Amino acid sequence: MAKYLKKFMLKVNESVLKNTVERAKKQNIIIPTYAQQRNPDLIPQKIKDEVKPHGLWDVHPRNLFRITWKNNVETGLYGDVNFIELPSELTGVKARIFGLVGKYFPTGAHKVGAAFSCLVPRLVTGEFDPTTQKAVWPSTGNYCRGGAYDCALLGTPSIAILPEEMSKERFDWLKEIGSEIFATPGCESNVKEIYDKCHELDRERGNSIVIFNQFAEFGNPIWHYHQTGSAALEVFDKIKKPGDRMSAWVSATGSAGTIAAGDHIKNVHPHAKIVASEALQCPTLYNNGFGGHRIEGIGDKHVPWIHNARNTDVVVAIDDENCMRMLRVFNTPEGHEVLAQAGVKKEIIDKLNLLGISSISNVLSAIKTAKMFEMDEHDCLFTCLTDSSVMYQSRLQELEQAHGKYSHDRAMADFERFWLGEDAQDMEELTYLARKRIHNLKYYTWCEQQGKTVEEIRELWDPEFWDDLFSDEVVNSWDEHIKEFNERTGLLK
To answer: Helices (H), strands (E): how many in the chain?
Structure first.
C-alpha cells in the first residue's frame, strides 16, 4: 500500500450504519457512485426512468443522480458535458477559452457535488448518523446551498453558515429548503468568522452536529479531481483541432476544491498550467494580503488546507469592479447591443447569463493568462462557470440604484476598459519558493487556530500525499462502500 493511502480508506461504524440504512429505506434513498456521476451510462435504466419525471431542482432523492456535469435539460436525462466556448470576439484573445457550465446541476451550482463528496462517504460508513445528528455546512457561497440540498434529498437535517452580506437569493433559497441558518459578520472574505461560529456550535451542541468544513474536507478535491477534471479532459478531446494544446485550468481558489481538477489535467497534460485566481481586494496568495470584496463564493484571507499549493503555477488577482461591471454588460439589453456590435453572435450573447460573478472572474483570469503567456489559437484554456446570474438579480438591482440606469455608452466603456482592456498586471508565475511560501501560510490558520499539527502540514508538501489522495484506489474503495450501502437497503432490487 502506498505511503498515505491508509489515511483515506474509510472505516465502518456498524452500529450507526444500521440506523442509516433504515433511514434510507424509509426515505427511498439510493446513492450514486462516483463512477456513475462521471459516466451516467452506468446508471441502471430503472433509476433513469425514476429520475426523468423530476425537475432539475426538485427535492427528490432520485435527483442525487443528477449530481453530474452531464445533465441534459432538454431530454431530462443525460448527454455530453455542459460547456460553452467563448469566442475571440468576446474575449479579445486568440486562445480558445472554455467554461464548464455549473447552472445545470441541482441548485444551479456545481458545489452540490463537492458537498455530496464530503457527506456521503461518512454517511455510508456510519461516521455520520442522520437520525441523531445535523450536518453543518460552513460556506461563503454555494457550498452551504449544495449541502442543504443534499441533506434534504437524503432526509438529513442541515445547518448553513455564511456571511451576512451574501446575496439575498442565497438566504431566500436556504429558508425555502428548510435549513437552519446562521449569518456571520462580514462579507465574502470573512472566513474566520465562519470558523468561529463552527467552534461555538461545536461547544454548544457537541455530538449532535457534524461539521463538514469544505476548506479541510478531502472529499471536496477528490470529487473535483475525478469529476470536474475528467469533464474538462472529455471536452478537450471532443473539441481539439490538430495542433491544439491543453494549456491551462483556471479556477478561483475558494475552498480549493475546484482547482483540484487541474491536478487531474496536469497528470494527463504535464505542460498545462494550474492558475489560481482571487480578488485583488483580498490578495492572500498574490501578496499575503487581506480585505473585503464582492466576488461572491470564492473565500479568502487564508490558504485552504486542501489546496495543493506545490502544484499551482500562476496566481492572478482580479479587481471585483471588473466583475460587477461585466455582470451588467452580460445581463442587460444595453450590454448585449454593445457585444453584438463587437461581432459576438447572438447564440453566445444569449448564454452569457450562465456566468455568475465568480464565473466572470474565472473567465477574466483565463483571458489574463492567455495574454501573459502570449497564447495563440492552438492554446485551449478551461475554467469553471460555477453558477449563473440567477443568484445575482438583486445585485443588478443594487447596481442600478447606486449608478443609475445603464446606457449604451456606459456598457461600451465597461466592455472596452474592464474586459478587453485588462492585461497581465496583478499576476505572478510561481517559483518553487513562491509555492512553498503560499503553502507555509496554512500554518497560521490551520495549526495556530484550527488544531492541525506541524507533522500534518509537512505531509501536505509531499507530492506522494496528493498522488495517494487522488488515486483510483481511494475513490473505487468509496464506491464499494456506496454499493454495499445500496445493497443493504434493497431498493435497487
So the answer is: 23, 11
B/e letters for 89-118, b = 16+ CB within 10 Å, e = fewer, are: ebbbbebbbbbbbbbbbbbbbbbbbbbbbb
What is the rounded CA–CA span in Å between residue 491 and residue 493?
6
Angle at which helices 408-415 and 333-341 cross, to 10°? 60
DSSP state of 450: S
40-85 tens-digit pLDDT:
999 999 999 999 999 998 999 999 999 999 999 899 999 999 999 9
Please list the residues that pair with 248 across neighbouring strands: 273, 381
Q: Can you read off the three cell numbers belonging to residue 394?
A: 438583486
Which one, of 297, 214, 230, lies nearest residue 263 by Cα? Answer: 230
Q: Are strands 427-429 and 314-318 parallel, antiparallel or unpaired?
A: antiparallel
Whole-Å CA distances, 157 to 208, 296, 334: 11, 25, 44
Give the C-alpha separation, 148 to 158, whole Å.
Answer: 6
Helices (DSSP H) in 155-228: which residue ranges? 168-177, 191-205, 219-223
Q: How far apart are CA 339 and CA 326, in angstroms?
A: 11
Mean pLDDT score of the chain: 94
User: How many other C-beta atoms lie within 10 A of the C-beta of residue 6?
Assistant: 9
List helix spans (H) across 124-167. Answer: 142-154
Phi, psi of 300 (to 5 degrees): -160, -170
DSSP code for 7: G
Show Cβ contacts of residue 124 under 8 Å, excluding neighbours closer than 6 positions. 17, 20, 31, 481, 482, 484, 485
Helix axes 472-489, 111-123, angle to 10 degrees: 70
Model confidence at 1: pLDDT above 60: no
In the predicted structure, residue 106 carries a pLDDT above the cut 70: yes
Q: How far apart are the first and last CA of the chain?
A: 35
Output the pTM of the full model. 0.95
Q: What is the DSSP letter of 115?
A: H
Return the DSSP state at 313: -
Q: Residue 75's Cα: distance from chain center in Å? A: 25
Residues linked to residue 138 through DSSP beta bridges, in sequence order: 161
